Amino acid sequence: MNNLKILFNIINVVLLVYIWGFSVVEYFSLPERIPLHFDINGKPDSFGAKITIFIGAVIATIIYFLSRFLSQNPDSKLSNIPNEMRKNKKLSGLFVRIVTFYVLLLFANITTEIVLISKGKYQQLSEVSTLILTLMFLSILGFFLFARKKVQE
């Protein structure tokens, strides 16, 4: 389990670096207005200044550091995980890292697609975000079932 925790730590750092690096590199080639919000079909319906490309990177950074804290402090009042999982610090730490992975992956995808839409290469968000969210919820469900079985043993 420690190897998995280390792997997800590395992947999460790489995703965070990607989000920041991609945002910085692409910022200079973005048009002055970029999509900020999308309708239910993934089409942009609100636009703002190109500096807002960094909002996602800032939020992703906050999430990353908050998750680092929560993965090491499962008894924190900020931690919203089942009590059975809190008892096993390794299991709860891995759970937080996996959820963080999916959230950062989602931020990386949305940042990439905002840039592609802004440059006219895409017309709307792809289905990748939906796929990431589906995988995240299935992983959470699977993890809860695994944790419940582990506690019962």
General shape: elongated
Flag low-confidence runs: none
Report how far the terminal alpha carbons are from each other: 17 Å
Q: Which whole number gives the mean pLDDT?
A: 91
β-sheet strand percentage? 5-15%
SSE series: HEEHHHH
Number of helices: 5
Count of strand segments: 2
Walk me through what this model shows:
The protein has five helices and two strands, in the order H-E-E-H-H-H-H. With 153 residues, the chain is mainly alpha-helical. A two-stranded antiparallel sheet has the order 1-2. Helix 1 runs antiparallel to helix 2.
Which labels suit this protein?
153 residues, mainly alpha, 5 helices, 69% helix
What does this entry show, briefly?
The protein has 153 residues and is mainly α. Helices cover 69% and strands 8% of the residues. Strand 1 and strand 2 form a beta hairpin.
Task: Furnish the topology, listing elements before pairings.
Layout: H1 2-27, E1 33-38, E2 44-49, H2 53-72, H3 83-86, H4 89-118, H5 128-152
Helix pairs in contact: 1-2, 1-4, 2-4, 4-5
